[in-house]
Amino acid sequence: MTDKRRKKRQLLTFCEPEASEACEAKKEGVESEMATIKPENSALDGVMKEVLNPRNLKKALKQVLRNKGAAGIDGMTTEQLPEYLKANWSRIKQELMRGAYMPKAVRRVEIPKATGGKRQLGIPTVVDRFIQQAVLQVLQDKWDSTFSMGSYGFRPGKSAHQAIRQAQKHVSSGLQIVVDIDLEQFFDRVNHDILMGLIAKRVGDRSIRKLLRSYLNAGVMENGLVKPTEEGTPQGGPLSPFLSNVILDELDRELEKRKLHFVRYADDCNIYVRSQRAGERVMTSITKFLNRRLKLKVNTSKSAVAEPWKRKFLGFTFGGRKVVKRRIAPQAMTRMKAKVRLITRRTCGGSLQEIAKELAIYLTGWRGYFGFCETPSVLAALDKWIRRRIRSLIWKRWKRGRTRYRELRALGLTEHQAAQAACTNSAWRASNHAAMHAAFPLAFFKDLGIPNLYQPSA
Predict the structure, then answer these.
(1) Which of 62, 60, 18, 48 is nearest to 36 (CA)?
(2) Between 227 and 83, residue with greater pLDDT
């Protein structure tokens, strides 16, 4: 048996260690191993039975291993998880069945927001991430179909691009005012009692409800001390995004009851109406609803009633005289240029090939999302700007005067071309000189592996 197959076999048999001997008697392969594993669920009913189903557990483990991620407060890594589960799963399973399992506190970390400031995350232990993932798979399968068609965040088969396209349709239909609602510190402010009340309406299994409550109350470790969590669903675990949809489904239902057109992606909600007066009225009433019913606060400094082209939604805005088009929001453009400047800064120290590799990774991801815009001229202009940044970097790394002249001559330029360009003092001005374009044509950037943002349709 190969090491790879043996490792895969271990991952798939952790949940029922007593079945390993039977597995040896069967033919090798995942499917045969699945067939030999029999769950101890004779005294188990409801949702927890589905959570502890071996097939669901194996799927959850594969997902956690695929996602990798940082260790929690116990320091255990995803690579150590399968071996730990093989040795301890029987005990953990019994605790889950009895409703006695106690999650560990999450580890507090801060990451920078794209818009500035810090976002607080709570990193669960890998064991808790595994259990959360197993619960998520069952609950999402049961509840997702009951969520609103206007909700697009953290749902299978739904995406940010779909949300943006739907928002565009609303604007194109004549709804020329958007009520842009931003919830203040939403994930840190979710009311546990309200959330558990909504969950109780959907699931009667007390062991699942107790488990979910224990995750909400697990606490946060910060600076070596565990602080209790009386509100919020810390971002960082598999369940948090799903639970956000559970509580905000109440907002969706209220908007549908009022027959309002809206698009929601997690806590980012846009409502589309026909007039400023209608928008102001909706903003006031929905703010009261969120505060009174869900105990959530609208961030008045980031929320507004305005024309869609004056607001951004998931990094995009909408505009156009006759046809409404998707445009990259100015804030997203600013962040993108700042990142490119950082990668191509003069003091970065790496070789041109290393810089190009880092830049290619970033641009490929950026294009995968923002290439969804309908303004190809903007993408083409960015391509030119990026190439100019690289030419400028090369120019700065050359020494002045004679060295620059020799470098340009070595690249095949005539004496006149090289002399003209070498006399230019400004690196940015030199980067747009005809001589630099001739020395570093489009083929040069292609060979470096730098992708084009603008890709003409065939």
Answers:
(1) 18
(2) 83
